Queue: 2 jobs
Job 1
Amino acid sequence: MSILANFLRKLGSEVSGDAVRTVARDQYTENLFEMVPAAKKVNPINLAEIAMRAAHGTPIPRPLGSHIHFSPWEKLLFNPVHLYRFPTPDNVGIDTSVVIGPRAGKPLHLSIPLIIAGMSFGGAMSKNAKIALARAASMAGTATNTGEAGLLEEEREEAQLLIGQYNRGGWLNTPDKYNRLNAIEIQLGQGAQGPTPQRTTTGNIGEEYREAFELEPGQDAKIHSRLEGVNTREDFIALVQRLRQETGVPVGLKIAAGHYLEHELQAALEAGCDFIAIDGAEGGTHGGAPTLEDDVGLPTIYAVNRAARFLAEKGAAVEISLIATGGLVTPGQMLKAMALGADAVYIGTAAVMAMVGDQMAKTMPFEPPTDMVVYTGKMTDHLDVERSVHNLFNFLNSCVMEMELVAVTTGKVSLRDINRDDLVCLDPYLARALDIQLGFVGPEEQAAFYGTGKWMPQESPSHQEEPRIH
Amino acid sequence: MENNNMKQVLSSFQSDLNRIQTLAGTLSQVEKKHFENLTGNENEELRDMAVAEQNGARQLGEIRQLCLAMAQKIEEIQNSMVAR
């Protein structure tokens, strides 16, 4: 054994020594080391995608959205309190519940502010994955979302609360289907792909998919850039009003965030939407063109801030629920989005990762873990539904408990009470954009730091609040 | 239904809701205590039970909030009936 070990060690030493000598002596043009600066110049992701584009000649569908961290969540920190306000006593339970669409006839009551995002059966996820998502959501007292799909009976059965997307494929847009939902989300776009068209070719459509989507044999599943029958602002307003009247459940709008956000929100306000889901540029997808993922949209942090402030200015923040989504993967990020004004957050990528969790080993090292959950994956049979439910339920619970800890440290009794005043910002421009105090200097020195007469006192009266000692 | 009857029914609903919210609050505290007792355990089964208890406590807390909101709505209806 020791002879073999010595031999291998000597061999390794010879090979590495030879490699180092070759790297040192060869001209760059003949040197394998050229790959290192080359990969650093274009970055490994772009390098691989250049090769994929060259091989396929068509847009390449990258799963899970952009890898770029557009939203600087790490520049925001929560403020712990000790004497300014007292921390929440140990024996006080933190209220984590939230109501979506409070003015609807049948509002959506959730135990936690985390909702499973729209990930469609067939277009994105396998049936088992959808069942696991729905079951875990029900256990945690929250809702799941159909995504752009037809009505999957198994999902409807498992989900106590199901938000259905009135979608651009038209698969859920008939009364027999949308009357079975607990909330309707009119999907006009998504963060990762905007309102672009998508197509699943018939070769990737199985029998259950065809049945749920009511497709003819040989028919592709197509998502159009516009919702059928909605070509003007008035069409959209009429649709929202009709659905609200017909169903009594909260009717909302989901869009990809962009710089014309306020104009689009104004239309939602005029239509009487009960909730608005804003999907930032970091939004995930089962597969979208990298250009749409990396170069289109508005990052979640700015989108949530702008949407929340717009609703507040219009006096609609209480009546209209705001759901933030797009790249929110940690409880801290989720809670920061809520502190900026979101009532709840959708989680997609994080939910899928949590579900797969300790099952990753089944696919490694030859397939990615998502191969077990995507509809077209080769290893969907390997997903253990019960384990997935267990993992996702635990993840949701763990996230909410961490949020509760922040509530205690900020002296709040409800997650809903956490707001901008509980945050401090570590970037001067961001601080001004988000109307959050800058952490570099004390509350009284903010105006002097910026060289202005005052620090937006009219919008933030609580900034001048006297310390409260209970 | 006569106005007086309606008032009685509403009053009874309000009383029941207050009872339910008190029970939910108490049970929520019990579940929370169970969670605390069961955490810190290496046994996976007990750990899962702790998480389920914590989740139960949270959902009971939500029931409590719902009952409070409903009782408040009933009070508003009662007040508007008196005003009429």
Note: The radius of gyration of chain A is 25 Å.
Job 2
Amino acid sequence: MGERIRAFEWKQTPLGPIQGWQQSLRTAVNILLSSRYAMWMCWGDDLTMLYNDAYRPTLGLKHPSSLGARSNDVWAEIWPDIGPRIQKVITTGVATFDEGLQLFLLRSGFPEETYHTFSYSPLTRDDGRIDGMLCVVTEETERVIGDRRLRTLRDVAAGMASTNTEPEVMQVMREQLASNRKDLPFTLTYLFDEQGAARLASSSGAETGDPLAPPRIEAGGNSPWPAQHLFLHPAAMRMEDLAELRQLGPLPSGDWTMPVHEAVIVPIKAQGEDRPAGFLVVGLNPYRRYDASYGGFIDLLAGQIAAGLGNARAYDTARRRAEALAEIDRAKTTFFSNVSHELRTPLTLMLSPVEELLAQSGGRPSAERDLLALVLRNGLRLQKLVNALLDFARIEAGRMRALFRPADLCTLTSDLAANFTSAMERAGLQFQIDCQPLAGPVYVDREMWEKIVLNLLSNALKFTFEGHVRIAIATCDAFAALSVEDTGSGIPEADLPHIFERFHRVDGSRGRTIEGSGIGLALVQELVKLHGGSIQVESRVSRGTTFTVLIPFGNAHLPPDQVHEDAETGSPSDGGEAFTEEANRWLPAHAVDGDGPLPTARPERILLADDNADMRDYVARLLAPHYRVTAVGDGEQALQSVLADPPSLILSDVMMPGLDGFELLKELRARPQTATIPVVLLSARAGEESRVEGLDSGADDYLIKPFTARELLARVGAHLAMQRRRMEAERELEESRATLQRANEELRRANADLEQFAYSASHDLQEPLRQIAIYSQLLQKKFTSRLDGKGAQYLAFCIEGAHRMEMLISGLLAYSQASRTPSSPAGTVNVREVADTVRKNLAATIEETGAEIVLGDLPSVVGDSAPLVHLFQNLVSNSLKYRGEQRPRISIGASPDGEMWRFSVADNGIGIPQEFHAQVFGMFKRLHDRSEYPGTGIGLAICQKIVERYGGHIWVESEPGCGSTFLFTLPRGSHDRSQATSSTGGR
Amino acid sequence: MTGVKPRVLLVEDNPADANLVEEALEEANLDCELSVMVNGKQMMELIESLELDKAQRLPDLVLLDLNLPKVPGDVVLERVRSSPRWRHAKVFIISSSDAPSDRERVLKLGAVGYFRKPSSLEEFMEIGPRVRAILEGPGPAN
């Protein structure tokens, strides 16, 4: 600015040329220019204006024309505000101070809402007279407007925090948006329905009925706002000219005097959906530019609406769900109540006649009485279940009317517990009843108390297999405490919080039965609550469980109208019997062998595993006439029984405590001695069929309860018959296998003995034979002259016999050597070299017979040289020996045969008749008289041994008179590692 | 050779074979002093005693059977080779074994020859010329 001021034509202004300026003016201008704080000043009568660089943004478009102009011209639009202040400073010399003064500046082409904090101070001439003003100013527009918007956002957020419904959200919007009419001269919040129609949910700054704010915009309908477009393309839109809308009526102006002429429409997102929940229309402040900060503010508002609506909708969903659940629960209670009632009537009608029949059945057969007792027992069990359900229904419906009377809890509880004494004894449990007189009176509903005690005891018995069950009554502060403690299987920690929930049952816990409704403990808890008491459980798996019921002394905690002061007398009801009768059925006394030995007893024995004693008895009775039956109460017992004495067939229930049917099956299949026993599963649970049928269950068959007697017998009979056949076949197979194995073993041993014998015999025979041979020769040589013709003849026979014997023995030796496994891995032998050796070894015979030996291309094979020489030499000798009339011609050739080489030794000799082809390789097989062809009958047998030792095979192709071809295979060797052959092979 | 007859010691348990050796030497007109020992133990004792009695002459050739009772031939041979006095004695092996391993083992122990007892008289008689050749060959290096 310094430059600009220096260059300015000041002589055109009242201040005159710069050179003529007073010292005080120069000083003031210097201060102005050297400051980095925004400043402007005016001087002289015309209030001529000067300013520095920092002030330029405030001037906007007014720079640079403002320099040297009259201040009242420059700030004409705000002169009413600042003119008097300047006049005052100049006339009085007292400085002014204004903070955040709102001024509408015309510096950007429109009147702009701005805020300034400034001070005017006087400037004096050289003579001390005041002739000017200096203004130090800070523009605070951004801060003031930012604060205002932030406040709105904060208030909306605060209001939203306590909203749960859509109308509440809209109410907050209406109130909070109306409180900032400067930034939000008017707002309209529309919400879409499913079809895209929009409904005005909230508005501010617009009157109800204003044509700008139609209460409903139909999808595709005409309206001031492009609702349809936003529904399909949710993105912010700016309507820069609302002139058209002005025809509908005057546009709102909010806090301003000028009406809105521009609006922004932003979609309101719906959480988790593509379609927007609605849109927000905001009429824009006409005194502000719509910039990023303004846009961000409106976006945040739309976001807050979206969040508020999302919360409201989630809350609404949760509330509806809770209501639906409550409704279902009410329905269930009603249903239970109705059903229980409906069930009780026919049950009672059934039970009474059965009881009557049973009472009169003294003279009837015991089988019939047993059946009646079975019906009665199960009827009672069903009744008990129905009663429990009914109790529940009553409690839930609030219709359970208790009658609380003072009771001798000690005696009452002891009497109830006594019901269980014999059942506990039979279960092998120690049963301790420890009821101490109490410190104060206790009010209980007798019937309910019975249920509490009996349910807890029955529960303890059900899950305890050894140790004790202890029931105690004692004083515990202001309460009477009933505790039932057992040393049973315990409750896993994860199940403890749910143990009193209705129908909750602990999976996989070991119990005497899995019969049960899962209703007992839930009922106990409800009954205890009715007494104003509480129940707790402590439990450790495999250690035991203790239930403790606390009932306050006195009656102050009970509804007065249900309290009766007269003590009840009389013995406990017969409820205890139903409980103990049921408990008795879980106990193992019923696990006995069927109905004893039968006249037509068959060897087949069936193991029956079912935890329901009645089902067990029923099935056992059905099977008893035909089979021996062993019945057990659970899978573990079944497994033990099977291992101790395998039955012919197993009938097993699927659902059993401890080891269930599937697990039992798995255990049985995993053991070789039980793997093949047929198993038929019995299943009662609907939906279990698929699992039972599944291939992976491994059961031989299954029956779904209820099944008929005929069906059961048919299936069992069929499986037993199949099992019998299978076992017979297996036994036969096993026998023949064993026989074969024995024979093989003997043969192998005999063979080995024979070979060993052949070897040693030949070896040991050789020495004396050599002696015989050599001394015969010596005899012949030295004493022939002394013998007559006959003697010499005999000696010749002797020598010849010894010679043949020697041949035989060396043949046998070679044969037994040939069949021994080579001691070292075979090398590679060049067959050509082998053949050459053979030719050399047999040179004398070849020459004598005039034979022609033709060698083809001969490869290398895997083997050892000595046996191979032996092999070829035997075959060539054979050919030479059995030569025909014409000159012998023997060709040796080879051709590939898979992994092997196929060799042939072909001659033009006398040939071998077809029927002898297989025999020629046998030991001592000779086809000719010794006079015709001498030989031992071992040669070809040795050949076969050698070939087989290397994994090959040998055969002959021949016809009498047309020569013979011996063929054999030997493994291929590598050509480049041929091995020199030596002729140490036998002759 | 001087006028002194060469001494040949035959260690052979089988009198039939000993007889044949004698026949063969005779047939080869070998004028020698043949003595026979019938087992390995006798031979071992002879080795011991000649160690002590340096006055006695060592045999010029030992014909040793391998398959001997009491002490086998190869042990006898080893003993000969470990004796300071006998160490360089000529030993010729006569055996009924045709096993190459036997042959190799005794040749390693310094036998001057190996004769496999054949079953033909003619072949057996060849032992005569072989013994002659050995006796007439270079003497022991003592």
Note: Chain B touches chain A at residues 14, 16-17, 20, 23, 96, 100, 117-122, 124 (CB under 8 Å).
